[in-house]
Amino acid sequence: MSRFKLAAASSVTALSLALAGCMGTGNIPSASAPITQSEAQAGAEAHPQLLAEFGGAMSGSQAQYVEQVGKNIAVHSGLGNARDSFTVSLLNSPVNNAFAIPGGYIYTTRQLVALMNNEAELAGVLGHEVGHVAARHSQRRQAAAQRNTLLGAAGAILSGILLGNSGLGQQIGQAALQGSQLLTLKFSRSQELEADGLGIRYLVDAGYDPRAMATVLRSLALQNALDAQLQGRDNANIPEWASTHPDPASRVQSALTTAQATGATGGVTNRDTFLTRIDGLTYGDDPKQGVVEGRQFIHPELRLAFTAPQGFYMVNGTRAVSINGQSGQAQFSTAPYNGNLDSYVTSIFGALSQQQQIRPQSIQKTTVNGLPAAYGTARVSSNNGQVDVTVFAYEFSNNQAYHFLAISPAGQTSPFNQMFGSMRRIDAQTAANVIPRVIDVVTVGSGDTVASLASRMAYSSNQVERFRVLNGLESNESLTAGQKVKIVVRGR
Questions:
Q1: pLDDT at residue 153 is higher than 50
Q2: What is the pTM of this model?
């Protein structure tokens, strides 16, 4: 959640309809028509909005390298003038994701790049996104979305948990879209498999090892499982609503089979070149946007922190932090504040009342860790029964307040009560201790082991597991002197 992008949520429907997230084979087209003027215009209009929602585009040598690999792989798509028609962006986002929009705009986050282990994997991921553009998947999904708007899709996020496809689900779902990873429409599974196949074809044509698509999917699956373990979730996969990708674990074998079917042997990976070029890349949250440390959210610039419930999954977006679990959903954000907490709480409820009035029975005042606070709860009917919608707000200064918006089953103890009570200021020393983590590429020495190198990771727990996933190492795989590996260290 960026310090400078904490304004009340604006409508993202138009942008969202243009977006298409992703990351076996279907019917794969051999070539595609050039990008049309209307497609290019649609992409150009959505591009700056998307950058704002995903942390902005990075610059410098790392971004230039990603752009170079992306444009080189786009040449093999069959699109006319592909090198000049595509815009490739490295996003300053701590989420493992990549996606595309019409007009030749493709994106990957720095976090996903950090998880990769060679240039062929980077080319495979970007090629997958180029495939979506070449096959016009976005346009097909947009047509479907116009029949069932993205707000309805957001409502469906909640339907399996609490709300059904009610108007309330649509309204709260729109608020949930402020978490950056919930902005993108997922492609159908057949479209994802088609893009996988296209990406693998581009890898072969460019001289890369076609197995790279499978290895990066495997790394994603392992990272998902590790994240679930660290966050105390039972499900080893990122929830469907929290990812633009179908489960990568289910696609590894399909990608391997597709790679084998190409008949290509060999192919380059450019591992050392890749690792050298990403050395120093920021890893995890950017402190300027706040950081998620296990169940803790800490924002050193805003001088605040809170603790999410056990087993809940947090997504740190540019406008809000989303907190999601099987027994409820919440988001932490801000809105304009006139110095009156009662009116602030009322205004948040009012913003939800597009189709039915949502008003709290009363607004209670309290103090949380020295912070003036106010909260209210409204019981609302939905297709699946009744739910409780709670707004819990805190005053940090005469002109600044923050709030949680939460949904939980009606009449039950809210799973967020402890989180509401955990909101606190942090002191200057605590804020100063929040420094970025970065990728440090090192060469394995003769006496180095997995355990010894993992001990240098800038984490207090699960160092070996983190090191193995980061480097794509099997559980029994050892290191060889002279090879390059990644560790995560504290930056400056």
A1: no
A2: 0.79
The 10s digit of each residue's pLDDT in 100-119 is 888 899 999 999 999 999 99
Q: Over the range 210-229, which residues count as b (16 or more CB within 10 Å of their CB) and which as e?
A: bbbbbbbbbbbbbbbbbbbe
Q: Domain locations in the chain?
A: 13-149+183-281, 288-431, 437-490
Find out if CATH 3.10.350 is the number for domain 437-490.
Answer: yes
